[in-house]
Amino acid sequence: MGVTGQLGEFLRARRARLRPEDVGLPAFPERRRVNGLRREEIAHLAGVSPSYYTRLEQGHAVNASEAVLNALAGALHLDPHERAHLRELAARRPRTSRRPTPERLHPMTRELIGSLRDVPALVLGRRADVLAWNGPGHALLAGHTDRTAPERAADRPNLTRMLFLDPHTRELYTDWPRKARAVVGNLRLVAGRHPEDALLAALIGELSMKSPEFTALWGDHRVRPCEGEGYELRHPLVGPVAVTQHSLVPPHSPQQSVVLITAAAGDDASRHALELLAQNCSTGPAERTG
User: Fold this and answer.
1) Which of 70, 83, 163, 211 has the highest Cβ tally under 10 A?
2) What are the two backbone dihedrals, phi and then psi, of residue 159, each rounded to the nearest 5 degrees?
3) CATH topology for 3-91?
4) What is the tens place of the pLDDT at every residue in 47-99?
5) 192 and 92 in contact (C-beta within 8 Å)?
6) Where in the chain is the domain with CATH 3.30.450.180?
7) pLDDT at residue 94, rounded to an integer
8) Can you say whether the dihedral through the CA atoms of 222, 190, 130, 242 is positive or negative?
């Protein structure tokens, strides 16, 4: 999907989400042939001509001004993350897709992960490829996989692929649908920022072919960064664990994220479970990558 196509799909998805009563219009369900608002209604609310708005959805109009984008964001009731996504899609110009080089781990990030012995930690690339993890991080999230896989660019686990296609990872999350929505919402943001990334496009294509659930979530066009969230896990070794996931952006690698996982505040049972997991896993060469 090209840049203009992504913009049009996003506008259509956000338009379909709104009901007439959400924007102060009378609701006559029997007269409506489309879900949500009509193009003409959004155009009227945004103060642009219906023909111009139609060209935007069809990918035939470019160079939308900041004022027009702000008006559309208001008419579509976009939240701050969706507003930023709209601007990124509108600002992007089609470029030739190219196969990027494998992401590399910065020495300072490698040193950080290697120093964390008791806290589950991992480093994710922009496509959610695992660039490194420590022993507890591997044991908590993917103990059934090869711990040394992140050392080899061709074998690196991808957490989004695992979430949708690996039954062990799916079983790990008590509320799998909520985790899936969060992951896809973040992937949408990344795709908007990097429309030329061939590896990212291949990942999205693979998941769209193999997972109807991914296809449905992707088609919803929700956007939300994964900045930190709490989840309940069903771990096969230590049982139920309530955790908080913290995503930090290293200043020397702004397209990567360092993920630290701690027990939920005040949950002594979960804290003990993570301590037990850390005690029973070794640390070693799997933390080296690059």
Assistant:
1) 163
2) -65, -30
3) 434 Repressor (Amino-terminal Domain) (1.10.260)
4) 888 888 888 888 776 678 888 888 888 888 898 888 888 888 887 665 555 66
5) yes
6) 107-287
7) 54
8) negative
Torsion over CA: 227, 238, 136, 146 (sign): negative
CA dist., res. 72 & res. 59, Å (int): 15
Residue 34, pLDDT score: 66
* Tokens describing residue 279: 């005690």
Burial class from Cβ neighbours inside 10 Å (0-12, 13-18, 19+) for residue 201 reads middle
DSSP-derived secondary structure for the chain: --HHHHHHHHHHHHHHH--GGGGTPPP-GGG--SSS--HHHHHHHHTS-HHHHHHHHHT------HHHHHHHHHHTT--HHHHHHHHHHHH------B-PPPP---HHHHHHHHH-SSS-EEEE-TT-BEEEE-HHHHHHHHTTS-TTGGGSGGG--BHHHHHHH-HHHHHHBTTHHHHHHHHHHHHHHHHHH-TTBHHHHHHHHHHHHH-HHHHHHHHHT-----SEEEEEEEETTTEEEEEEEEEE--TT-TT-EEEEEEEPTT-HHHHHHHHHHHHTS--SGGG---
Q: Are 180 and 215 in contact (CB under 8 A)?
A: no
Task: Find the length of the chain.
Answer: 290
The pLDDT score that the predictor gives to residue 28 is: 58
Please give the pLDDT value at position 51: 85
- Tokens for 227? 């900045």
Residues of the chain with pLDDT under 50: 1, 3, 283-290
Residue that is written with structure tokens 């004022």 in the block: 67
Q: Which two tokens stand for residue 119?
A: 């806290």
Q: Using one digit for the tens of pLDDT, what is the confidence trace for 240-254?
A: 999 999 999 998 898
Q: Which CATH architecture has domain 107-287?
A: 2-Layer Sandwich (3.30)
